[in-house]
Amino acid sequence: MMDVFADIAAVQNRIAEITGAFAPANPPAAAGPRFASALADALRPANPALGLQPGGSDAPGSGVAPSAAAPVPPAQIDALVEQNAQTWQVDPALIKAVIANESGFNANATSSVGAQGLMQLMPATAASLGVKNAYDPAQNVAGGTHYLRGLLDRFGGDKRLAIAAYNAGPGAVEKYGGVPPYAETRNYVQNVLASFEKYNSGR
Q: CA 14: distance to chain centroid?
């Protein structure tokens, strides 16, 4: 087996001869452990449990909510709500009401069925809206508001039906010709509308 560290030392000595510089004072035996340690550090995964290397927002594994991620400041959420309210022409109070009831303003929330982020987008829904990372607040609120706009259009601007469809799916609303007879959905609609009134009166 080749002695890599001896080869490195030989190259360093040759460079020193050519340039007239002093060769490294440390012998290969001393340099070896330092080099090996640096190499091990470079190859160590960012998250040993997952075996993931650091990556950007679209890197594999980036769709997993960081367990220790800092909470998103309320002012940042408010800014995203206002921006997307204007972009998609949706009442900001309705967007905030959905966020409050879906995630409690927790950008790292994950439901038992896999819904993600502030507006609790399901992976398939997020993908269809062009959201690459549903835990990113900007992408999540943009995608969720876009989806809400589509539901309002589908149900003639009826907030109650759009809210029901956000929870149970538009197919269920159309099947029953109104809010589906599911206790969860009926409670959800009632709670979101109550939040909507609260945020509306607070303006």
A: 51
pLDDT tens-place string over residues 139-174: 999 999 999 999 999 999 999 999 999 999 999 999
Write the DSSP string, 32-71: HHHHHHHHHHHHS-SBTTTTBPP--TTSTTTTSPPTTPPP
Please state which of the four CATH numbers 3.40.50.2000, 1.10.530.10, 3.40.50.300, 3.40.47.10 is assigned to the domain occupying 74-201.
Answer: 1.10.530.10
Over residues 101-126, the pLDDT tens digits come to 999 999 999 999 999 999 999 999 99
3-state SS track over 74-101: HHHHHHHHHHHHHHHCCCHHHHHHHHHH
Q: Answer whether 145's CB lies under 8 Å from 89's CB.
A: no
Average pLDDT, the chain: 80
Residue spans of the domains in the chain: they are 4-43, 74-201
Q: In a 3-state reduction of DSSP, which class is residue 27?
A: coil
Question: Which sequence positions are flagged as catalytic?
Answer: 102
